[in-house]
């Protein structure tokens, strides 16, 4: 499981799903940034983010509150996407597209209001986003593979294929070290977001 050969095999099998996750996210960004984006739906989805933002802003210790809320929110949603991907991979796919749409919608709004989107991305997204998005893409990649290998195991068993559950078992085994990486990346991302990003974006 934690051997170099085992980790390399896991990465080899999960890499196409990782790339697919990145494509889904950026496809969502493109959709969210277009004039035809479902604005009412996206505005409703962002209300939860406003609650977190308000809690941070009104806290006596904004950096510590930001770290706790961001970490709890990110870890919960990411693990849910990874685990509930077992249902045909639907949750991680929808999570990637929705979050991409929200980001695309926000950036489009900032651009329309005359903001410097490039600097906004550099200062407000990249410092923590590289870590957090890598963790999300990896978790969703496992979630999608969980769903597809489960379906493959079910249909493979029904049609009498040899060892139809091996891909699912390998995915489950590989998800253990991956989960450690995901949690570490999310923790580091939350530290960066609640300190460096918070400082860079502070008025």
Percent of residues in beta strands: under 5%
Q: Could you name the ranges where pLDDT drops below 50 across 5 or more consecutive residues?
A: none
Q: Quaternary arrangement of the chains shown?
A: single chain
Helix percentage range: over 70%
What does this 3D model show about the protein?
- The protein has 203 residues and is mostly helical.
- The chain has one domain (4-201).
- Helices cover 83% and strands 0% of the residues.
- It has helices at residues 4-32, 39-45, 47-57, 62-83, 90-112, 117-124, 126-158, 166-201.
- Helix 4 packs parallel to helix 7, helix 6 (117-124) crosses helix 7 and helix 7 (126-158) packs antiparallel against helix 8.
- The protein starts with a helix and ends with a helix.
Question: In a nutshell, what does this entry contain?
Answer:
This protein is mainly alpha-helical. Helices cover 83% and strands 0% of the residues.
Topology readout:
Layout: H1 4-32, H2 39-45, H3 47-57, H4 62-83, H5 90-112, H6 117-124, H7 126-158, H8 166-201
Q: Keywords, please?
A:
single chain, 8 helices, 0% strand, globular
């Amino acid at each position: 499981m934690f051997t170099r050969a085992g980790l390399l095999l896991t990465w080899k099998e999960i890499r196409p799903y990782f790339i697919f996750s990145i494509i889904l996210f950026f496809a969502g960004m493109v959709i969210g940034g277009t004039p035809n984006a479902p604005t009412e739906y996206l505005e409703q989805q962002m209300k939860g983010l406003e609650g977190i933002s308000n809690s941070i802003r009104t806290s006596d210790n904004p950096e510590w509150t930001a770290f706790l809320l961001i970490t709890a929110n990110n870890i919960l949603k990411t693990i849910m996407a990874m685990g509930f991907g077992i249902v045909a991979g639907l949750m991680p796919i929808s999570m990637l597209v929705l979050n991409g749409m929200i980001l695309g919608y926000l950036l489009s709004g900032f651009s329309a209001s005359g903001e410097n989107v490039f600097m906004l991305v550099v200062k407000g997204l990249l410092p923590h986003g590289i870590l957090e998005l890598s963790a999300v893409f990896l978790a969703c990649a496992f979630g999608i593979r969980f769903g597809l290998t489960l379906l493959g195991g079910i249909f493979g068993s029904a049609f009498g294929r040899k060892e139809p559950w091996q891909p699912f078992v390998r995915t489950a085994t590989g998800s253990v070290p991956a989960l450690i990486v995901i949690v570490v990346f999310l923790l580091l991302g939350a530290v960066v977001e609640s300190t460096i990003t918070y400082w860079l974006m502070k008025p």
